[in-house]
């Protein structure tokens, strides 16, 4: 057995996304002598970042007032016009901006690659001497005898699928810190443990999610309008009594980012969010932009949709949740980067003050208070009933009620109610109660099969390693997930990871193609029995998103 190495620092941040890097940068801006470590499970900073994205620059303006003049790639394409359509099967109805609350405007925002913006943030962090370690996932939390978080342990390297040690085996390193910030993004594996261990969700609504599936296209230059932002709702999810919507953003270099978000509280287990995206692209209003173009990248990621009422307790002894680990997405705006970054900056201020006062591993109650009195809270409270209204009353009535509620809250006469949520997996219905959905075959030009698209995520995992998608009870998977719910894992996964294979004369076998996994976390969220647990694979594994 190799001896585990140990490293001490002031602050360790789990996750090199916008929230984690903003926290690291802010810490160094406050006190450049602090030793700050950022651990990122992707092969490089930005490799696992996927978003639309239309970015509200509010947090960037606070972190770097001159960011537009600092070669930040997000500055390249300001939003030029903003459209919102309600789709029917063949047509579209624009929603006039005059009837939409002001907060829904994208005026002053920018559209571009959040992955590239994150890479830029990583460069700024390293320039401030933050120690950034890509390819090092944190797999375990260090909790001392007094119940305080004291850091994390990184994933062991060189472990074979059978658990034996390969010749290149290296045990994970202990990163011990005065404070640990969890910035893993939506449904982080360690965040899930911290929520359970410290009962952080005792006084909030459960978090709910959507699955965002995205492609990047090079399109005909004649069709490209830099800065044009299009959002849609309605068809095709209206046909399965589900809800969500699409986006198409005209970004730099003649590219469009297009994607589709399906709320994961859908009832019909035959719904396939990936296939709904492929159908959406065939709508005449969307297809016209894509014809003559070329898909260049693909990816998928779960998105927090619970809103303000699902924000858990944020601080606990020695640690805190920041960014999408806590859940600060503004669902109607389809934006969360600015709120995630701001939460990281607020946590950094709290941590820096605590360390300056000679404290360590204390509970950062002032950070929790700061978030709840910040513009994060002001913004999210205005939209807190939007998601549950649509979830409860459907796309048409729910959208109208959500609009009225947002207007009333904007005018400070909001209704004195906060609607609740049901965990997504509890909403999945029995297969015998719902019709099968016959999705059209892909044409290979506009729509594509999953495995072909996964190749465009540039996903790679070492084959000889333990499966990072852990099925707790394989009998339960067969008796319930397959026989009661019709095997929804074969449809909700946007990467074709799961298959039920039946050979002649044999029982169905649950096959996990873990090498395909794009780390979207949908299985961890939507499995009807919560029987699949997503844990970190070996460092550097997963997608390698270019320009996403």
Task: Give an overview in words.
The protein is an alpha+beta fold. The chain is 26% helix and 23% strand. It is built from 15 helices and 23 strands. The strands form 6 sheets. Strands 1, 2, 7, 8, 9, 12, 18 and 19 form an 8-stranded mixed beta sheet that branches. Strand 10 (157-159) and strand 11 form a beta hairpin. The longest helix is centred in the middle third of the chain and has 20 residues, at 337-356. It is globular, with a radius of gyration of 22 Å. It starts with 5 loop residues before the first strand and ends in a 14-residue tail after the last strand. The model has no long low-confidence stretch (mean pLDDT 95).
Q: Any chance you could write out the topology, listing elements then pairs?
A:
Blueprint: E1 6-14, H1 18-30, E2 36-40, E3 54-55, H2 58-63, E4 81-87, E5 92-94, E6 110-111, H3 114-127, E7 131-134, E8 138-143, E9 149-154, E10 157-159, E11 165-170, E12 174-182, H4 189-197, E13 209-218, E14 228-234, E15 244-250, E16 255-263, H5 273-281, H6 284-290, E17 294-304, E18 315-316, E19 319-321, H7 337-356, H8 365-372, H9 375-382, H10 386-393, H11 395-410, H12 450-454, E20 469-471, H13 474-482, H14 489-492, E21 498-501, E22 509-512, H15 522-526, E23 532-534
Parallel strand pairs: 1-2, 1-12, 2-7, 4-14, 12-19
Antiparallel strand pairs: 3-6, 4-5, 8-9, 9-12, 10-11, 13-16, 13-17, 14-15, 15-16, 18-19, 20-23, 21-22
Helix pairs in contact: 1-3, 1-7, 7-8, 10-11
